């Protein structure tokens, strides 16, 4: 008899933030250990495309899956399924030409609101660091 999967399927969701800085400056905060350590985690180290993020002494590792200078950076938690990731994408508003940060992540449907609040707090910290 087949076992029922007890893990709910996670869904992809996207959050959008207006950022008052150039894509180049924003990219440095999203793609480098020093930049990420400014707002995303207490400590960030990287070696061979594996980033180690530390919060309150607990470490999580993510693989840098893909990136394009000043456009996007995509990570996958090592403990997560292959098709799940979190991504920072930088776009220019077509009308206003403002920089827009898109955060793509995965969460169970019932956890999207809580995860979104967590991202909102993190990105607020990022905005403070870059003076936006």
From TrEMBL:
It comes from Compostibacter hankyongensis. InterPro entries: START-like_dom_sf, START_2. It holds the Pfam family START_2. Gene3D superfamilies: 3.30.530.20. This is START-like domain-containing protein. It comes from the Bacteria. Residues 7-131 form the START-like domain.
